[in-house]
């Protein structure tokens, strides 16, 4: 029997018992759809993390106040000052730029509309270092910072928060804690970076923030851009040396500050996401095994039902290999049909999750190919035993079977 005839016979058998065939394929359909959906979610999460890492800027370290915990006891926290930022910028050989920050959530008003937003006092180079793009207007200058001018650059989502548009907000006066600020620039859309939604922040000159808004000289954070070609670990050592000198910390004493590479957090998160995605995909693949067992069960029933047919085929000259291939092809066709439906269902579910839940999903061609190949493998593996059983039937006994 030719392969084409075998496939035609297999499809005819499935059509003759359409509902039973669908139930048989259901395990394969669910398994393939689950694997594709889980991999799509994992790939989407990985892509989102990669975008967040990219949004952090090129090798940026974050210096913040506070020492390390040792033996469960919190050490005294130090403070960061503008002198620390200036010392790093002046003496660190591994640093390309320094951005000092002082931030806090403030009441922001525009007319009779108000929102509680994060306001960041920072140096004029914050946009360049973080690679933020301007949507409209301009960034405040060093002269604005030195003169402590009340000017502000707002994130892309701030106009909507204040029930206006970017064009409507640019050049307008907003009030931060009842202090008037002129909006001179609006950033392009950035999105979520770590725990912060950059699009809903407001940036003002650092000296304006320190002396006109917050009223103290301390900094919350010093962001340090690592020079090109320098490993972050080397920059951390360099910055730590300068900070210990500025804070007059004796050898053997704990730091009263901490230096973090935000990318390390995202890398750990990415690794955890990958493990979780593969774990879910592995659990989902169990459905394929269950579906394969179901196919083997149905094929054994089919062999019993078609015993006389096997006897007739053998009497007409069919060899053991012909009979074995016939039933093996039927099991394979069931799995491949189920795999095809499962692929379409998995793609549809992934797209539905992306649209309804807002999660990023990426349909992986490799995942589709692997799931399809795995479904074919399941058909071959679990169809082999029923096919061998059919091939070994004695033709005389098969013809007598009622």
Description of the molecule:
The chain is of the alpha+beta class and 402 residues long. The chain is 56% helix and 19% strand. The strands form three sheets. Strands 4-5-12-7-9-8 form a six-stranded mixed barrel. A two-stranded antiparallel sheet has the order 2-3. β8 (173-176) and β9 (179-187) form a beta hairpin. α2 (18-55) crosses α12 (320-357) and α10 (262-305) runs antiparallel to α12 (320-357). The model is unreliable at 68-76 (pLDDT under 50).
Characteristic terms for this protein:
six-stranded mixed barrel; 402 residues; alpha+beta; two-stranded antiparallel ribbon; 56% helix
Give me the secondary-structure category.
alpha+beta
Number of strands: 14
Percent helix among the residues? 55-70%
How much of the residues is beta strand, in percent?
A: 15-25%
Determine the mean pLDDT.
Answer: 81
Question: Biggest sheet, strands in spatial order?
Answer: 4-5-12-7-9-8
TL;DR of this structure?
The protein is an alpha+beta fold. The protein has helices at 3-16, 18-55, 82-91, 126-129, 142-146, 158-161, 166-169, 206-214, 232-246, 262-305, 307-315, 320-357, 365-391, 395-400; strands at residues 60-65, 69-70, 73-74, 95-110, 113-122, 134-137, 151-154, 173-176, 179-187, 192-193, 196-197, 201-205, 221-226, 257-260.
Task: Give the SSE map.
Elements: H1 3-16, H2 18-55, E1 60-65, E2 69-70, E3 73-74, H3 82-91, E4 95-110, E5 113-122, H4 126-129, E6 134-137, H5 142-146, E7 151-154, H6 158-161, H7 166-169, E8 173-176, E9 179-187, E10 192-193, E11 196-197, E12 201-205, H8 206-214, E13 221-226, H9 232-246, E14 257-260, H10 262-305, H11 307-315, H12 320-357, H13 365-391, H14 395-400
Parallel strand pairs: 5-12, 7-9
Antiparallel strand pairs: 1-13, 1-14, 2-3, 4-5, 4-8, 4-13, 6-9, 7-12, 8-9, 10-11
Helix pairs in contact: 1-12, 2-10, 2-12, 2-13, 3-9, 10-12, 10-13, 12-13
